[in-house]
Specification:
- 2 copies of one chain form a homodimer.
- Helices cover 29% and strands 23% of the residues of chain A.
- By secondary structure, chain A is α+β, with helices and mostly antiparallel strands.
- Chain A folds into 3 domains: 2-286, Glycoside hydrolase, family 65, N-terminal domain (Beta-galactosidase, Chain A, domain 5), CATH 2.70.98.40; 299-674, Glycosyltransferase; 689-740.
- In chain A, the strands form 6 sheets. A 9-stranded antiparallel beta sheet of chain A has the order 1-9-10-11-12-19-16-15-14.
- The A-B interface holds A 51-54, 57, 79-82, 84, 386-388, 407, 409, 413-414, 458-461, 467, 469-470, 479-480, 482, 534-535, 537-541, 547, 559-563, 565-567 and B 51-54, 57, 79-82, 84, 386-388, 407, 409, 413-414, 458-461, 467, 469-470, 479-480, 482, 534-535, 537-541, 547, 559-563, 565-567.
Chain lengths: 743, 743
């Protein structure tokens, strides 16, 4: 059972070091730190600036080192000269390296036995244990643990425990390294590092954006010969631990981070002082209690298939970790604050993939996420103005201020649907949690984005309907198309909402409503097929059998972009994504037609694709397909052999995984689709049980599905009507309803 | 009359300094040097590397200094970290600066009177004269002259003549500066500069591509106190001239350049030794004689409108200058070796805009240009292979090896027509000059490009014809379209030729021919309108009246790219370009329909647009439009107020200007259009005479058009049938035929 709460690495391989760094990221919302080895690896300098190679300009990855440190505080952005605004990687504070007889513990060079590293998901704690057969002779048992406190979000606590088979002197280095880069670039305008007290280090960096980050780290150990070693942008203490045979030595390192942007400013040294007398165990207990409460609100129990349980818990862990409660100045970036892929920016991923999980488990956290777009409305207005439009246009890749940071024009200029997706998510939030949100905080967003759309929409000569031209839909392998079904429907939805939103003039409202009705959803000749765009059939066949030789690698890695752009290959489902978001608007026949037509064209090169396909497959009763897509979606970050989370967590995919379980296999209809709580369970054959808590329009509920029976317990205070399959029951408060289900 | 041979600057303005630098570029084919001031300007450092600004990445211009040195030897390419392979700007050798009483001659700071600078087009010599009222009191007359020898292409000769109104001592600095950049980047892996003899400087640079360039400069003056001043990457001599009142002092500077790539290697010092006894006047006379012979072969005489004559001679001067005779390793880059715009790369401009001028005036020079594509076939093969195609694919922006150097994917990946344009130009060359070329040197190019096309062409499900999808036509404001009429016709032409080319198997030949026949030329509903592409009508109206507020500036500078890409705005004529290249395939009604439909959509933001419109207007008898477009095309580089040639000469436009005069106003049908020499003169009202030499299929001819009469003289050795308007005469060798013409 504990196994399903643990992600374990049982042998160290340098080839998967970066993947585990990402997967083992710890965080408190406020502070995140990748799962880097405390003692680091040789030959992986973290201060390289490989900007000067011609091919790196458009590449997302500047470096391909064997290890990549990452320390992130959401909201700290700086300006990269080539890549535009990005999240800044802060100084590395985990450094803790034992040396024996001049040999530094080194996972590549040293003789290591009995290695195990595990992330305890329930306790959000990373532990490593190993036996180190030193070249000098002594054999050391090394145990390391660390957590970023859920109770004290700016605090990271580390502990190293050493014991040896004979008396030995261990030299320990414990430092703080500010000589780091972000995507190869140095964002620090100023760095100051100095000893703080007899066993501490204080660091202050000023970013190129003018923000400051301060870190104070403090060491505790029964050791001697404490020496401070300074080098440019680095500081470290060294000290000696004398271990008796069989005796133990313990080193603790506590670091507190503060920035000039904090909503709750603190003095790192004062926090450390305050906690000085609190032992490790007490700090850990408080941290674990906070995580236990989080898990209670959202854990999804799966029985019958440990891999599924594993993957789902990993997803939920990272979703919980990455969320910053109560801070509407940030959302959850595309890599979940676990790497520099996508530059720490905010995408539609938040609205479409991540919000539902929080919305149905912890609505106030969902509100923080939708509030982010209210907060960043000025940036969206600036984006619209920069392109000559009125109103507000949300960025394809947003920084904390809502400003467009995407450096690649096809996405930046053409993937406009994000502006409608923002409104969709607000409507979703309102329907599920707070109806008055639409006329309150969301109103200005709805109206301002509608004004942008009205200027962005064209009416071609000869046409008697409006058109949205030159757009990129979710399928990014068709960069510029016309009347994209997904985009048109989302924009139509947003405009229809705007027509009913206070603040629109009567004339505006009429125009919004009329345009919403007029935007076409293009159809194939049979009238059943929804076309991805009106010009989709002008594209050629992708000829996968000829060009997609290695199906384990993305299609896009095997053909030039030019072929992607002139053929019907899809990066991810586009029409099916639409049918996932608005299932009630399409008949099963239409969904099935779209599935049959697009699936052979779909590469699933995007990690956002498989989850949506699993959900659609559930609707269509395609159990085998649903299972295959579930596996693909669920295990992306666990697949360390193929990179996994090396660049960060696929956090949208994590959100999709929750949706597959709850909207797919349990068949929950969203609050936009249904006023009443409705489930259509369809358990995978391998699963003997699926159970989870929900909040349905303010009412806490728990759902427990086993083959043939679904039990819904009303944990609220008023009766709750529930439909499962075709059967409806009204469940009294505190009671449970049992439903017979087909599967 | 001399006025029409002279481009003059009568007042120095720093705002137009860069435009004149480009316009006044001197060159011998082998060596080119921008018209920079010998003494330079303050505050225009030539060693800046402004690479680190976020917005510069996609910009073509890295620096916007008030002066920009440029020294170019065609074929010397290096690798820019952001921009890819580019022509390297070599060390600056013109430096020659007089100082009086500590004051350096400075066009901005000094008191200057009687200023005049002129480029003598006939003599290809740049002269400057001015009166310098020094702060110390003496008034100096300064005269400067220089030329890059047409007789000795690696040699540049400079002379400065000084006289004063009273006795004065002038300190002169004369140096060589290798601390230069190309688009902000330092391409020199190694630089050595040292004194060479008592009055010389020798410089050797090694480029990042491993090529070397050597320069030896030598000074002559009746002066004293010769002192060599060394600084990093720079070397200079200073010396003192003592002028009596009314007496003259003369300084001569001769520089010879050699590179490791030279077809005719030389030792610069030995060349200078050899010429040591030859006086300036003799060198100038040899140079001018060589230019006179060039002008004889191609000068176009215009009477009645001096502006036209002026502009045309300027165009022809730069075409003659930029051509490198006998070296098939280079073509003529997009800025005519007069600046770093477009990075010194080779575009379709060579084939479509420049070749015709040489082809009908000096066919061996045209052959060198088409041979460049034969020479660079291996690069074209590598380009195809890099994208997974067989055969050969010519680069949108080619370096000397034919490799793709374009860093911007829409052009690089999608503007594929260049590969067909290359074949078109070979066919044009063969038809006009050397029919056997097609079965000889061109055959492999024709076959290999045909093999690329066969793999690049798709057949969509349900279609019974082949399609060329995802292309950019000459109108670069529609980045990715399907079945572009221009591209399809050019590819069809190339494939039809390939079907008849030895080396193709019977099966291949059948497939080439069938595909050539099948590629559609899309049409509008009326069957008369040729559509730019099959999806052109899906685009929106560009709404110029609303968004193009300042018509003197490009439309693209006033709207975001996103609007360009979703509307029917054209950067340049696309269908009309096709009708210009294949006039015989379209009726006047079709041409007129295309003109009426596309002209309102055409921004002419490209300098390639106006000339083609002038030619089409001539065909359609639209005299006023023809004249307006002629003016726009003819004077682009002369328009120093709007930048003119600041980044280099619009050399394709120069070629187009010749075409407007000869194919447009004289109405010459090309050898691809007509087997017989055919003219349809239509003189502009302002012109009283248009006369030019031609070579028609090996037969030298001179044409002289005055209102109502056209005279064609056969300067060859066999009778020549000629049609002017509707009348045909066979003109005996040595005789002239007179034709009555309408206008």
């Amino acid at each position: 059972m504990a196994e399903t709460w643990t992600l374990a690495e049982t042998a160290f391989r340098v080839s998967s070091a970066r993947a585990y760094e990402g997967l083992f990221t710890l965080g408190s919302g406020y502070l995140h730190v990748r799962g880097s080895l405390e003692e680091h690896l040789e030959g992986a300098p973290q201060n390289a600036s490989p900007l000067r190679t011609p091919d790196s300009v458009t590449a997302e990855k500047f470096v391909n080192l064997k290890a990549k440190w990452g320390t992130y505080v959401p909201g700290l952005f700086g300006r990269h000269p080539l890549l535009n605004r990005e999240m800044i990687n802060l100084p590395f504070f985990l450094d803790l390296a034992p040396h024996v007889g001049g040999e530094r513990l080194d996972m590549e060079q040293s003789t290591i036995e009995a290695y195990r590293r595990e992330l305890d998901l329930r306790a959000a704690t990373l532990r490593r244990s190993l036996r180190w057969r030193t070249r000098a002779g002594p054999v050391l048992e090394v145990a390391l643990a660390r957590f970023v406190s859920a109770e004290r979000p700016p605090l990271c606590v580390q502990r190293m425990t050493l014991s040896a088979d004979r008396p030995v002197e261990v030299l320990v280095r414990a430092g703080l390294d500010a000589d780091v880069r972000t995507n190869g670039y140095d964002h620090f305008a100023d760095v100051a590092i100095e000893p703080a007290g007899s066993r501490g280090i204080a660091c202050r960096v000023q970013t190129d954006a003018g923000d400051t980050a301060r870190m104070v780290t403090r060491l505790a150990a029964d050791a001697s010969d404490w020496t401070y070693v300074a080098s440019p942008r680095r500081g470290a203490w060294t000290f000696r631990l004398r271990l008796a045979a069989g005796g133990r030595g313990i080193v603790e390192k506590r670091t507190v981070v503060a920035t000039s942007r904090d909503l709750a400013p603190c003095d790192p040294a004062a926090v450390l002082d305050e906690l000085a007398a609190t032992p490790y165990e007490a700090l850990a207990a408080g941290h674990e209690a906070a995580w236990a409460a989080r898990w209670d609100s959202c854990d999804v129990l799966v029985e019958g298939d440990q891999r599924s349980q594993h993957a789902l818990r990993a997803s939920l862990y990272h979703l919980l970790r990455a969320h910053v409660p109560g801070d509407p100045r940030v959302a959850i970036d595309a890599k979940g604050y676990a790497g520099e892929g996508y530059y720490g920016r905010y995408f539609w991923d938040t609205e479409m993939y991540i919000v539902p999980f929080f919305l149905y488990t912890d609505p106030p956290r969902a509100r923080t996420l939708v509030d982010f777009r209210v907060h960043s409305l000025p940036g969206a207005r600036a984006n619209a103005a920069a392109l000559g439009y009125p109103g507000a246009r949300y960025a394809w890749e947003s920084d904390g201020d809502g400003r467009e940071a995407c450096a690649l024009w096809p996405y930046r200029d053409h993937e406009v649907h994000v502006t409608a997706d923002v409104v969709y998510a607000m409507a979703h939030y309102a329907a599920a949690a707070e109806p008055e949100y639409l006329r309150g905080p969301a109103a200005e967003v709805i109206l301002e984005t509608a004004r942008y759309w009205m200027a962005r929409i064209d009416r071609r000569p000869g046409d008697d309907y409006p058109s949205l031209l030159g757009v990129m839909g979710p399928d990014e392998y068709t960069p510029i198309c016309h009347n994209n079904a997904f985009t048109n429907r989302m924009v139509g939805f947003a405009l229809a909402l705007a027509a009913q939103t206070p603040g629109a003039s009567a004339e505006e409202a009429r125009a919004f409503a009329e345009t919403a009705r007029g935007l076409p959803i293009p159809r194939g000749a049979d009238g059943v097929l929804v076309l991805q765009s009106e010009d989709f059939e002008l594209l050629a066949e992708p000829q996968f059998e000829r060009f997609w030789r290695d199906r384990r690698r993305p299609f896009s890695s095997q053909v030039p972009q030019e072929r992607l752009y002139r053929t019907r290959c899809l990066k991810q489902g586009d029409v099916l994504m639409l049918m996932h978001l608005a299932p009630q608007e399409f008949s099963d026949a239409e969904v099935r037609r779209a599935w049959d037509y697009y699936l052979p064209y779909t590469t699933h090169d995007s990690s956002l694709s498989a989850g949506v396909h699993a959900i659609i497959a559930c609707r269509l009763g395609l159990d085998e397909a649903a299972w295959d897509f579930w596996r693909r979606s669920a295990e992306i970050d666990l697949d360390v052999e193929h990179g996994g989370a090396a660049e960060g967590i696929h956090i949208a995919c994590a959100g999709a995984n929750w949706q597959v379980a709850v909207l797919g296999f349990a068949g929950l209809a969203t609050a936009l689709e249904s006023d009443r709580l409705r489930l259509r369970p369809r358990l995978p054959h391998a699963w003997s049980r699926l159970a989870f808590p929900l909040v349905w329009k303010g009412c806490p509920v728990s759902v427990d599905i086993v083959p043939g029976t679904t039990t819904v317990r009303n944990r609220g205070t008023t009766p709750l009507p529930v439909t499962v399959g075709e059967e409806t029951q009204e469940i009294p408060p505190g009671a449970a309803g049992r439903f017979r289900t087909r599967v």
